[in-house]
Amino acid sequence: MGEGVVRTLLDDGATVIATGRDRARLDELRANVVDAETDQRLHTEVLDASAPDLDAQIEALATTYGTFDGVVVAVASWGNQGRRPALSLNDDEWQHLLDANLTTVFRLFRGFLPHTARTGMILQLNGMSADIPFPGAAGVALSAAASKSLTRTIAAEQDGRGPRFYQVILGVVRTRARQRAGVDDPTWLEGEEVGAHVAALVVGTSPLSDTTVHYLTDKRVGPEAH
């Protein structure tokens, strides 16, 4: 999904700073998406949303690259406990899931806000677990629902006085990992379709630019507000 978003933004002429915790995966991303024309416009930087010095890391990015026109947040962690009923989790497992899936979103929103253009946007890509039960993954589902609420609250608090905040809830996306496992369906979303919606929100041309919560679950329908 992230790869599709990066590729679309590059194809639209943007300069993209892709971040993540794993340098090897960032190098793989670069190898998969760049060509001779886009190579100089993709920068990859290690960024850990759980790090104590996250704000300083973000400030360093802004010092290097300037104010951001758009920030896309996509974080997810299944933890190490596997698929388990909610009430079988111990306190440490529960806290880890909340820290990894919710606190990270909060910290990224807070950290990037001062470095995002007033006419820009900050967006979280989320999943359908924000709205529906997710047996065996209560921490992930609860965090998805809570980060949706967080985005709506921040958007209301901003009230047009700074970057726009968005929550985009996605259906199933075709990914390389799923295809390698033999799991694929041509009716699922393409990463580039997600990227096209993100790009339209960055420049403000989407008809949903004035709406905080968007759903992109059916490629035949496209982005819609509920």
From TrEMBL:
Q: In its keyword annotation, does this UniProt entry include Transferase?
A: no
UniProt KW NAD keyword: no
Family annotation (SUPFAM superfamilies):
NAD(P)-binding Rossmann-fold domains (SSF51735)
Gene3D superfamilies associated with the record = NAD(P)-binding Rossmann-like Domain (3.40.50.720)
Could you list this entry's UniProt keywords, alphabetically sorted: Oxidoreductase
Recorded superkingdom: Bacteria
For this chain, the family text in UniProt reads: Belongs to the short-chain dehydrogenases/reductases (SDR) family.
Query: What name does this protein carry?
Result: Uncharacterized protein
Per the UniProt record, the source organism is Gordonia jacobaea
